[in-house]
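Posting this for the archive.
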Amino acid sequence: MKTINDILAKVTTDKIIGDTAVNINTLKIDSRKVETGDVFFAIKGTSVDGHAFIETVIKQGAVAIVCEALPTLLHEQIVYIQVQDARKTSAIMATNFYDHPSTKLKLVGVTGTNGKTSIATLLHQIYTQKGFKTGLLSTIVNKIHHNEIVSTHTTPDPIAINALLHNMVEYQCEYAFMEVSSHAADQDRIFGLSFVGAIFTNITHDHLDYHKTFQEYIYAKKKFFDQLPATAFALTNADDKRGEIMLQNTVAKKYTYAIKTLADFRFKILENSFSGLVVECNGIDVHLQMTGRFNAYNLLAIYATCTLLGMPKEEALSAISILKGAEGRFDVITSSQKNIIGIIDYAHTPDALKNVLDTIKEIRTNNENVITVIGCGGNRDKAKRPDMALIASELSNKVILTSDNPRNEIPEEIISEMKAGVPPQNYNKVLAVTDRREAIRIACSLAMPKDIILLAGKGHEKYQEINGMKYPFDDKAILQEIFIEMKK
C-alpha cells in the first residue's frame, strides 16, 4: 500500500492541504471510474474540465484531489494538491506509483502519420518469435507478451500506460514497443517515460482538427524526440522532408534510414508485386512477404531498429523476410471464382491513400480496373475530405464514395464535402452510395476478372460508429462473404 507521500517525488506543487501520509488505492483521470481510496486528477481537457467533477468523486470515495485551481469548498478529510499542470503531474505520479516501469524495459516508441501500427506490431512479433517476453501498445491491441488487452486509443493516458508497463515488468518482459501519437506527445501522456529509442516514419496532413496548424502537428511529433535521453537512439526517415526536423534538438544518438537518399540504413527495391518485395540491403538480395514501397520503408525501419537494439544484421534481415503485414494494412484477398483482387487498408489520410494507390499502380499491368471504396470519418479533420476524393478519382478507374465512421455527422453531408474535390473530368468515375456494405457489394458487381477492389479507411476496425453507437462492421469479412456469394 502506498501513501500520497510515496508518489510525490519530482512533483512541483503550489500548495498541499491535508495529510499526505494517507494510504491510497490507485490513480484515476476518469471521474466515472473513481472508487474508495483513489487519487483523482482534475484535468482540463479539450471539451471537459475535470475540476467540475471534484465534488462527485469525493462522494464516490476519492481521498485526494490533484488540481490546478482549488475548489471553493474544501473537505477536512480530503487531501488537495494544487499544481500548475495536472496532466503532467499525473504522468509523474503514475510513474512513481508504478515504480518507474519504463526504466525496467527496453521501451521503443514509434511516431509519424503512417506506419506506426505496422512497425510496432511487427517489432513485437519479431522479438516474441526470438523468445523474448515482449510488450506492445498499439492502436489495434495492447499485448503483454501473448496476452491481449483491447486498445481504445493510439496512446492511452499516462496512468494506463504506466499500469500496462508495470504489468509487463511483472510478467518479466524485456522489450516493449509503443505507438506514440501526436496527441499523446502534445498532452504529455508519455512524459516521464524512459525510452531506449524512437522511430519517426513520416508526416503528412492529419489531425488538423486537433492541432489546428500543420506546424503544430510537426512539433507535437518533434516533442517526443526532444525528450529523449542521451543514451537513447533517434531513428528518422531521411526521405521525408521533415525527417531532419525530428533530430534538430534531440540529445539522443542520431540515425537515418532511406530508400531514395543516402542514409545509415538503406534498401534498394528490386521487385514489387502483390506477392511481395525483393530488396537489396548491404549487397544482399532479400525476399520480403509484404507488398509496396510504404512497406519497404516500414521493414527498413524495423531492420534498423533491430540492429540498433543489438541484433546482428544478418539475423535482422532474416527476421523481416518472414514477416506478414498487420491486420488491415494492405491486406490482400482474392476471389477464386472471378480472380478479383481485394485490398483492405486503413488508409484514412490523403498521403496514406495515395501511397496505397501508388503501390497498386506500381504493381498492376494496366489491363485491370482499380475500383476504390472510400469514406471519411465524421467529427474529424474536414479539410482532407475533398483531397481524399480527388486522389481516389485521379488514381482509380471507378470510385464509390461512402460512409466510414460518420459519428455525429450526416453521412450524405460528408460525402458531399468529399465530392467537392472531384474535378469535372472525373465526375463519370464517381458514385455515391451511403451504405458502406452496399457500396462494397456494388464494387464487386462492377469488377471483372483480375480487377482490383480497394476498401480504404477502416482497415482493422470491426465496427462502424454512428451517433455515439458502435455497430459491428468488418470490411474484410464483408468482402469475403460477397466473394463466396459470387461463387454460387
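The first helix runs from residue 54 to 60. Residues 206-211 have pLDDT under 50 and may be disordered.
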